[in-house]
Amino acid sequence: MPANEVHFHEVGAVDSIIDIVGSCLAFHLLGIDAISVSALPTGSGQVKCRHGIYPIPAPATAEILLELKSMPCDDEPFELVTPTGAALLATWPKAELGSNAQLAGTANSFGQHKLKTRPNLLRALLYKTCTTEVAEIIVLETNIDDCSPELLGNLCQKLPEKGALDVWTTAANMKKQRSGYVLSVLLKNSDKTEILKLIFSETTTFGIREYPVKRHCLERQIENLETIYGIVRVKIGKWHGKPVSYSPEFEDCRHLSESTGMPIKTIQQEALFAINKLNLESN
What we know:
With 283 residues, this protein is an alpha+beta fold.
């Protein structure tokens, strides 16, 4: 119906408006992207509304609960889920908690009404999802025993330009003990067509295998660190927000090596020394 004809009964009360606005403000201030809700115990018995007495869950609550998981709760003859609460949980975006979710905060809110079998408690848990998300990707793989190493090397240079996430070759003995290689390419499914075309065009293979894999990636951060030879970019890998891996950018070390005449490994060691010094200062 037109918005100006909508009449709010219970939800038009001031306390309901405060509940809704306050909850949405908290959702915004906490920077929440999505929620995960367990099965909601609806309670049992009857509830008195402005239009009379209704069975629990109330009609509006029952309609909204079609979007959520719920379960009857016969041992509690009270209304445990209101239309306002159900509407908020049904409207906010949803997401399942992954294995990379880390507990960041907790809050407990107690009601004054005494329940029979459980505390009158609403518990909220705040999780942070690290960017170590498990990615669903694929591997393309083929055996090659009649292609020159130069052509194979050229292909390995071109594949990342087409979206390959990683490329590697493994020496192998083929039929009749011919020496050959297994070419493996890690990629997103969206790049498969272009990469298949490139492999078929640039090699002598007649068939390519495909299988799905899962990849766990560290959260990545780049820091510019000052060394006695110049600035080196260092890639920092984080697991659940904590640094666990450091890798000086090779090209930066190579350029500084060329300009200073120092070995590349010396530049790399200085970069790692700068990282250790930074960690000590931060601690």
